[in-house]
């Protein structure tokens, strides 16, 4: 006879949660924390009072909440850390990139048909769709031969059997799968220029800054060639401007590379912040020749901790594609999705995924690090650590950025006028939620424009993660259901539109 299987502690906790009296409230909280996998727990409360009369308009106290806490999403952009928060970030990135390509597209926008005004005031006119734009990929130069997948071909074929000064074969006759750990690692780690690689990562931000200046400069001779007369840099500044959004990503070899959308805008002499169409002679071809020229010429002298002279420049692997409307690649939605995907996925995740890992990097636990990220990335981290101790490299903060292999830039940046900001998107999301509450008759006394409210709050950190065993699992399951519902809703809208179009045609 078999004994009845007893529920595991997790199963018991799950049943507790689902049958608990406060389950509906808990679910609401989980939803508000966007089903984050590692939410921050806050204890305390807040009071919104009328500034004139002192009358209390609303009050929250976590004492009455499930588990006595408020859950706040972690907001991490990395998919390896929090799938749900990374997804929110990816969507925001998508909107950011897409609005710079096709104009602001949002449920929260209002205003006329020509220019859609965001709730917080940034305007991206629909006409940007017609602006010349390029999709540019820039990579790092080589710091020594590495193993590569080569699409199923031999890694590094060589006829001779030459070896390096360390006695290692210069070639590699193997065929590597694309996801094999050896791909991206040096043929000889002793020959590989680790200092150069780390210093390059540390200067890629400056290299990009110089590239942008060089593009603007290169526009003048390019315009001169088209117009058949001399065009000065000063004149060009009164005619056109480049805007961009860029995303940085780590390659397998631990070096940063960039994807950017560069757009050509015109100038409104009365309002330089406005986005207007460029003059007709300012074509995608003209922009492409200026970008190519800038990318070839630009360089940053790197510091020389070991007496070796190095200049930071772009690698020979680069791509400049015309993605203007009606051009060879017209699918702007795919382009936006592509950039957004890269914003949440980086190889540095492998190095910086957990705080435990960051601690171990700080104490430079070498054996552990090698096991966790492989010998090559571990050596990049170690090089950051060693160079970070030097007084002459202090300004690069290499120890602080060791987990990012020396790169201390932002993973996604844009020029001021490219499109809406992430902050604007967040504000729009808050406004939309408040609007929903209003629609349901609930007044939002917490919003700052509710008028004459003062908010007193006292919050204390109460921990990280979900409270009960099984909560995280439940949140993950709810996130999936939520996603599924979203997809079904979108599909429904699409079908409705199709039927509408068919009715119109009939
Ligand atoms: Zn999260
Ligand atoms: Zn190989
Ligand atoms: Zn060697």
UniProtKB/TrEMBL annotation:
Residues in coiled coil: 472-502
Coiled coil is among the record's keywords: yes
Protein's recorded name: Replication initiation protein
InterPro entries: RepSA
Keyword annotations: Coiled coil
Provenance organism: Nocardiopsis mwathae
